[in-house]
Hints:
The protein is α/β, with parallel strands linked by helices. The chain has 4 helices and 7 strands, in the order H-H-E-E-E-E-H-E-H-E-E. It has helices spanning 2-8, 18-41, 95-108, 125-137; strands at 45-46, 64-71, 77-81, 84-88, 114-119, 142-145, 148-149. Helix 3 (95-108) packs across helix 4 (125-137). It starts with a helix and ends in a 21-residue tail after the last strand. It is a single-pass membrane protein; Single-pass type II membrane protein.
Amino acid sequence: xxxxxxxxxxxxxEFNITAIIDIIFILIIFLLFLGQFIASENxxxxxxxxxxxxxxxxxxxxxxxxxxxxxxxxxxxxCIFQDSKLALEPxxxxxxxxxTMINRGIELLHGEALINLRxxxxxxxxxxxxxITAIANSNASEMIIxxxxxxxxxxxxxxxxxPQTDQAGE
Length: 170
């Protein structure tokens, strides 16, 4: 008897799924927009090849100094800052030594320095992480990580990361 009363009660067997459909629709729209934002930020970056000097580019800001991090032929990670070189190997170059080298270079500039960090293409994060730590611990006011960005053709399809060629010049 109680079971029959419950079955006959208004709304007992009804379930309103309108709200669930609305939430799923909004979630789908949100994920589509999120995908577009991620695609717009995913541009190809061309990292410079080995650099053999530590000189700021023409048009550099005042107080900007370059710190190059590269792998030598024997596998040693070498840091070049102004006229100083330091090999980062276990037992040889430490973060503290690199920090001291950076601070000495900043003192020569008599003020705040902007460190322009340039790294070889083949380095992985674990190899240049001590360099970033040393810059963070130094007296540098700011750090820039340099990279060359490939030119992108706006008319090309989304997701095409291949370099564009000049069709008129061929």
